[in-house]
């Protein structure tokens, strides 16, 4: 018990495991002009207003002249050429992507137009088929009506002949109604 009390009363010292010492971050210099990359002036797209384009060009010229005065070494020229080439490749890839996008849009429109034309042809053929089926059904119905009318006319003539026979002989029919 006494040992537990002494452990509680004594301040606990954290034991440091085998950890390497923490290194301090390197000091960053405040000289930003050494780290700036020279980017050639890019012509703005036609949608940009002229005053904005003029401001962008003037800023690019100022940066170019400042950096040219600060770094006339050959290494920066190579970097400038590399960055200019990189910017040109980037612009060309964007133009190529836009061109492919426009081509695919045109192809999709053409395909959609062709598929809609095919669909219209199918609709027209189906409508023609349905009209033909309706005409055939109406024709069959007329034929059946004609057959029924002819049979009805025959039954009426037969009934009239039978009635005339009974009148002539003076006898009465054995069945008064056909449904008994």
Instruction: Give the tally of β-strands.
Output: 0
Major beta sheet summary: none
Task: Name the overall outline.
Answer: rod-shaped
Structural class: mainly alpha
Strand content: under 5%
Backbone CA Rg: 51 Å
Termini distance? Answer: 120 Å
Estimate percent helicity: 55-70%
Order of helices and strands: HHH
Which stretches are low in confidence, meaning pLDDT under 50 for 5 or more residues running?
68-72
Mean pLDDT: 75
Seen as an oligomer or otherwise, the chain set is: single chain
- DSSP summary: helix tally: 3
What does this structure look like?
By secondary structure, the protein is mostly helical. Helices cover 69% and strands 0% of the residues. The chain contains three helices and no strands. It is rod-shaped, with a radius of gyration of 51 Å.
């Amino acid at each position: 018990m006494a040992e537990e009390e002494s452990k509680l009363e004594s301040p606990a010292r954290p034991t440091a495991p085998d950890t390497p010492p923490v290194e301090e971050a390197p000091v960053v210099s405040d000289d930003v002009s050494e780290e700036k990359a020279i980017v050639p002036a890019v012509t703005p797209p036609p949608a940009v207003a002229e005053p904005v384009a003029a401001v962008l060009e003037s800023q690019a010229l100022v940066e170019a002249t400042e950096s040219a005065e600060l770094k006339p070494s050959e290494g920066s020229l190579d970097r400038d050429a590399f960055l200019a080439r990189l910017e040109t490749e980037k612009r060309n890839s964007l133009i190529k992507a836009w061109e492919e996008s426009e081509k695919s849009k045109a192809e999709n429109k053409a395909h959609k137009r062709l598929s809609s034309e095919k669909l219209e042809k199918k609709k027209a053929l189906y409508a023609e088929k349905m009209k033909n089926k309706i005409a055939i059904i109406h024709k069959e119905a007329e034929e059946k009506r004609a057959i029924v009318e002819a049979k009805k006319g025959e039954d009426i003539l037969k009934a009239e002949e039978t009635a005339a026979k009974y009148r002539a002989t003076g006898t009465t029919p054995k069945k008064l109604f056909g449904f008994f």
